[in-house]
Write a structure and sequence with these properties.
Order of helices and strands: EHEHEHEHEHHEHEHEHH
Strand order of the largest sheet: 1-2-3-4-5-6-7-8
Largest sheet: 8 strands, parallel, barrel
Number of strands: 8
Shape: globular
């Protein structure tokens, strides 16, 4: 299990200040949609200057026609991030096109597929996908595995089912982790760090419980002790 810290603060300055507080730890940093649109590649370079051993997860959830997604994936690989994601609902052709495009890279980033956003509850998910979260997440995970992706983004509650349906080596990255039972906020399917460990989660993504803490560095140390 490897910790991934979500850099979801309102400004680049605040996110970089948080990263500086955590620079003693060689952990993953999640750069999300808002942050990347606002701050771009220079922000990722700034993170690497703070700690060259930070690993970067670019959380853009690509979703477009297959060739456009593959073009974007190649540009992401050129930036030098360590992991990025796409929407599984883009389908098998998109997945295969992306992985074929990245096959020529000696060190390509890990590619994950988003199964069901953790903001969904069961009722709203079924309205869109016409199946339950567990059933559809497993279906998306199998598709991702069969097309050569490295893992999926899912909630903790689907992690074990997905690994059983694919492989223990197939990665699960899980947002909505509240390590010590903190407030769920806008997430519907949250879990403690203890449950994430039991369910075989590879990457717990933690944001607010860290950056809203009075001492983020101390909070990260507590989390890493459990991990």
């Amino acid at each position: 299990m490897e910790l991934c810290v979500a850099l979801d603060l309102p400004t680049a300055e605040e996110n970089l200040a948080l990263a500086k507080q955590l620079k003693e730890h060689n952990i993953w940093m999640k750069v999300g949609f808002r942050t990347y649109i606002r701050d771009g590649k220079p922000f990722i370079e700034a993170l690497k200057e703070i700690n060259p051993n930070f690993k970067i997860f670019l959380d853009l959830k690509l979703y477009d026609i297959p060739n456009t997604m593959a073009d974007a994936a190649e540009e992401i690989a050129k930036i030098g991030v360590d992991m990025f994601n796409i929407h599984a609902s883009a389908g098998s052709i998109a997945m295969k096109t992306i992985m074929d495009r990245l096959s020529s890279y000696e060190k390509r980033p890990l590619v994950l597929a988003v199964t069901a956003l953790t903001s969904f509850d069961e009722e709203n998910f079924q309205t869109i996908y016409e199946k339950g979260i567990n059933e559809k997440a497993e279906q998306f995970a199998k598709m991702s595995y069969e097309n050569g992706l490295d893992g999926v983004v899912c909630s903790t509650f689907e992690s074990r089912v997905i690994k059983n349906a694919t492989s223990t080596e197939f990665l699960t990255l899980c947002p909505g982790i509240r390590p010590f039972g903190e407030d769920a906020g806008d997430q519907q399917r949250v879990a403690t760090l203890e449950l994430a460990q039991k369910e075989g989660v590879d990457f717990p993504v933690i944001g607010r419980p860290i950056y809203r803490d009075e001492n983020p560095a101390s909070k990260v140390s507590q989390i890493l002790k459990i991990i």
